[in-house]
Write a structure and sequence with these properties.
The chain has 155 residues and is an all-beta fold. The chain is built from no helices and eleven strands. The chain is 0% helix and 47% strand. Strand 8 and strand 9 form a beta hairpin. The relative contact order is 0.25.
């Protein structure tokens, strides 16, 4: 998948097959419930690899440089839970910042999770995507509900 982050939506362009199930398919301007910039929703197949590129761009369409930033995406079973059932992060390597070779800027946040890593998840989860800058300021990019579904795919 390829997604461009900008004012209202992340658009996607398929880079790899998704076995008929989309990843996080919808991101729209946040409703203010969580304070996040965007609302997030969609379905993640837990028995298939989750590989997705999110392209960050400024409002005018220019690539947004992510160099030096840390990202974390958490999945919690309940809004009241203080700890996540699963955490993706740049520290753990399940999220990484890579160069958009067309633009020559590190503007891509890549999700790369092995198929077996999410196998214990089933149901709806509270998802939060946050970023920390070099001054330790944290920005809450997205919040919402994503569904983790086990699909009958085996290799």
């Amino acid at each position: 998948y390829r997604r461009n982050f900008h004012d209202v939506l992340w658009h996607r362009e398929r880079n790899v097959p998704s076995c008929g199930v989309d990843g996080m398919t919808n991101l729209t301007r946040g409703n203010g419930e969580s304070g996040a910039e965007l609302s997030i929703s969609g379905t993640i197949p837990v028995n298939a690899s989750w590989y997705e590129d999110i392209y960050f761009t400024a409002y005018d369409g220019t690539p947004y440089d992510l160099t030096g930033l840390d990202f974390k995406l958490t999945l919690r079973a309940s809004p009241d839970d203080a700890t996540a059932e699963y955490t993706l992060s740049t520290d753990a390597g399940t999220l990484s910042i890579v160069e958009d070779t067309d633009a020559g800027v590190n503007s891509i946040l890549r999700i790369n999770v092995a198929a077996e890593a999410l196998s214990s998840l089933d149901g709806d989860y509270v998802a939060d995507l946050a970023m920390r800058d070099v001054s330790d300021r944290v920005f809450h990019w997205a919040h919402g509900i994503v569904s983790c579904r086990n699909n009958p795919i085996a290799f």
